[in-house]
């Protein structure tokens, strides 16, 4: 690559990161949780209109991505390489990393329904487990396909993968969790997982809310799939 082009690109990235408000936004996203423009404006201590300009600059430099979820728009780091670069800069700067502080009621945060699939920490745990095992493949970062091993694993737990695949809807997708600010599993596959969990008695629905309660059976039979292993 041309040396002048490399120098120019580095200077552009450095300038985007160097502005204090943008730096605060980026550092707040290092915990892996997406945030709204309003939340990032508060983090950066700037007005909403100014935050929009900053976020446009960060998107232009491919440092953050925007995700639409319902009526809200969330922002996250554009990839692990961005996080690695920021973490290295934090080490050089000698500053600690702040953690994410959710304000969702604990019962809803642990497990709940999101339309017809499972959300909350339990839903995110399933998504993360499938990702760690390499069982989910995505070509666009949002829609998923199961690998052969992933399909066998889901079938082994009792999910009818082919029936889910035959539904007239998206088979599997990343649905951004509003309490965890990380994706849980949506689509027909996510719905099939919730249906199985209810039938197997791994979760019980609350009568007055969308909350789900994990049962001792879930903790005994499939703890890793609910994040309690």
Describe the structure.
This protein is 49% helix and 17% strand. It is an alpha+beta fold and 229 residues long. The protein has 2 domains: 91 residues, Orthogonal Bundle (Arc Repressor Mutant, subunit A), CATH 1.10.10; 121 residues, no CATH class. The strands form 5 sheets. A 3-stranded antiparallel β-sheet has the order 1-3-2. Helix 2 crosses helix 3 and helix 3 crosses helix 4. The relative contact order is 0.12.
Descriptive tags:
single chain; 229 residues; alpha+beta; Arc Repressor Mutant, subunit A; 2 domains; three-stranded antiparallel β-sheet; 11 helices; 17% strand
Oligomer: single chain
Main beta sheet: strand number and arrangement? Answer: 3 strands, antiparallel
How many beta-strand segments? 11
Taking pLDDT < 50 over at least 5 consecutive residues as the criterion, the unreliable ranges are: none
Which structural class do you get from the secondary structure elements? Answer: alpha+beta
Helicity range? 40-55%
C-alpha termini separation: 47 Å
Rounded radius of gyration (Å): 20 Å
Query: What is the number of domains?
Result: 2
Order of helices and strands: HHEHHEEHHEEHEEHHEEHEEH
Strand order of the largest sheet: 1-3-2
Percent strand equals 15-25%
Arithmetic mean of pLDDT: 88
Structural shape: elongated
Structure annotation, total helices: 11
